[in-house]
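User: Sorry, what's this?
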Amino acid sequence: MKLKKGFITHTIQDTQIMVAVGPMTERFHGLVRSNETAAFIVDALKEETTEEAIVEKLLAEYEADPDAVRRDVHEILRKLDSIGAIEPAGAVR
C-alpha cells in the first residue's frame, strides 16, 4: 500500500497537514491534521509498505505496547482508506 498521488503533506510546528490536490480534490475536500504518530504513518506511506512494516518501524522508533501500536496503525490506515488516500499494494497508477 502507498499514499495516493494527489495527497500532499506539510508540517507546521508539531502538526502535519495533508490535503488533496489536482483530481483528488473531486473526492476529498478537506484536510487531515495528524499528530506525531499519524504523521509517522503517513510518511511511511510515501513509499510502498505494509501495515506490519509500519508497526515494526513505529516499535523501532518508540517504546510502546506492540498491541496498542497495531491497533493504532490499523485504525489510522482505516481512516486514511476511508477518504481514498491509500492505494492498495501493486496498484497501477
